[in-house]
Structures are given as structure tokens and as C-alpha cells.
Amino acid sequence: MQAVLAHPPLWKGAIFVSANPGLEHEEERAARRAKDAEWAVQCLSAPWENFLKEWDAQGVFEGSPPPPDRSSLKPWRKSISRAFIDWSVGAQENLAPLLKQSPVPQLWIAGQRDARFSALVRRMAGGQAVIIPHAGHRLPLETPERLTECLQPFILQNL
After folding, report:
1. H/E element holding 108?
2. Which residues are 132's β-sheet partners?
3. d(Cα 128, Cα 90) in Å, to the nearest integer?
4. CB 38 within 8 A of CB 131
5. Which of 50, 64, 84, 145 has the least C-beta neighbours within 10 A?
6. Residue 159 CB: number of other CB atoms within 10 A?
7. Digitized pLDDT (tens) for each residue of the chain, 159 residues in all
8. In what order do the strands lie in the sheet with 14-17?
9. Segment holding 100, helix H or strand E
């Protein structure tokens, strides 16, 4: 999102899948930073399988199957933990107003069972929002064919 905003002429279009442009209020951002700090600690200190189980139990993933075997990620725990801090949505500015004004064509996609992101996508894209039926937050894993069907027209239109 930052790259699209920084250099619009370089972009023919942007596709955002289950993406968050930022939180509106400082209280929300502070709470998110605090929660992400907790996740960072848990990632490093809890048994790996327990961490993944708790991560997958979040409401945003309700109804979404977990990705296949993630044991290969275990050696990357320090980097994953650090990512919770460095890439926290609570640490970024709210890009929604700027993205709404951007001249770059945008496609916003979310799964129907992902209530929070479906609402967010509708706010960002209005009538241009794509809500994939019977899908949750992990669209590339859950419905890769349907996601591809949604992407193709946008890509062909904006080549």
C-alpha cells in the first residue's frame, strides 16, 4: 500500500486480499501494538504447536482451515516474533483516506465468513468490493480457484 501511494505512476493496479489499510484511532493502534507484542513473546516462548493453535483460534480465522504443515517455520521463530513488532498494523498509519484518493485502480477482496474484513473491504471499495462466498480470511488457501477467477478480469483490464 505504501508503494502504491509513494509512486502511483509505476502501478497499473493494486490488488488487496484480506488486507488492512490501517486503524483509524490511536487507542486502536496502541491496543494492537500491545497485542502484537504479546504475540511476539508467545511466538518465542510457548511450545510451537501451542502458539500456532492459539494463533489459529483467533476470530479472524474462524471457519478457515489452518495452512498445511508449518513445522518448517519453527527455525524462523525469532524473525516471526520480530515481524509482530515491525509489521504491526498498530505501528502503521491509517492509509485508507489516501488509498481512496489514489488514482491507481484497486481491487479489494475478502471472504464472506470474514465479517471484519468484508466490512472493511466494502468501506474501502464500495460497489467494487469482491466478497467471495463461503470463504474466510485465508482466501489463497481456502478458495484458490475462486480467487483466481476474481483476479483475472481486474488484471486483464489493467494491463
Report:
1. strand 106-111
2. 111
3. 27
4. no
5. 145
6. 7
7. 999 999 999 999 999 999 999 999 999 999 999 999 999 999 999 999 999 999 999 999 987 888 988 999 999 999 999 999 999 999 999 999 999 999 999 999 999 999 999 999 999 997 678 999 999 999 999 999 999 999 999 999 997
8. 14-17, 106-111, 130-132
9. helix 96-101
Which strand (E) or helix (H) includes residue 132? strand 130-132
DSSP alpha helix (H) spans, 7-62: 26-45, 48-56
Closest CA to 150 of 11, 18, 38: 18
N- to C-terminal Cα separation, the chain: 19
- Residue among 153, 150, 156, 152 nearest 135 (CA): 150
Cβ(20)–Cβ(117) below 8 Å = yes
Rounded CA-CA distance 66/56 in Å is 7
Enter the pTM of the model: 0.90
